[in-house]
Design brief:
With 268 residues, this protein is an alpha/beta fold.
Length: 268
Amino acid sequence: LLACASADGEGDRPGCRQGNTGLFYWRGASEGLLRVLFSTHENDLGNGDDDDNDGAFVHPSVALAKATRVLELGAGLGGAGIGVAVGMAGRQSPDAQIKGVVVITDGNPDAVEASRRNVDLVMNDETNMATKALRTRCVDVSCEVLLWGQANHDVFFEKHPDSFDVVVGCDLIYSHEQLPMLFATIWQLLKTRRERSTNSNPMAIIAFRDRSRLSPVHPNLDAVLTAAFMARKGGLLAEVLGGDYGGSEAEYEGAAGRVQIILITLQQ
């Protein structure tokens, strides 16, 4: 992938400041997300402490297998969205009546351009057999600007009125101030999809690394889950997927904690 640098959660890197974090490759979260999305077995959902969420979630791999429309939020270089598109294309027949759609988004136009160039690299690499199915165009991949927060949604939803079955994101969260805008966007995406498709039970799947011990600016897992619950007056449910998805402190000594997979859906 095209990148201006690689970062692994060890703190600030030269040139890495709020607004251009998407131009760096952050280790761990995208690999963890793709691992769970394309796993062949179902791990336990959550920690069993919240009876209110029982039955609200399916395993992410099941949700993705049923999805025809997927959105990546805060994509940066687009690695996770490209991985999802490749995996979807490998499952889908080139002559399928309904083509898959993957939309890769970021609020930074420079990151969107980097994602677009990475998509072109993958599509034009005829030596890569893993992406051969994607080159048959059975999954449409596009890259667009999307700023979080309800005030920024109108133009995007005019272009995508049906919204998406699955929303994914990796290493999206770096400050408490982001949380209300992020979850307002997730709520709107899921709500719109449920209204437009009676057969869809939309879900957001977020790979999160807790960096709160590096700086109080970074929210911890509890803060993220609380913000999700408070979004749209409790209209969202959030649960943590059990299992190990990489990014352990043993693997990245002195860095952020292990990757946590957060599942988010609408209350029934």
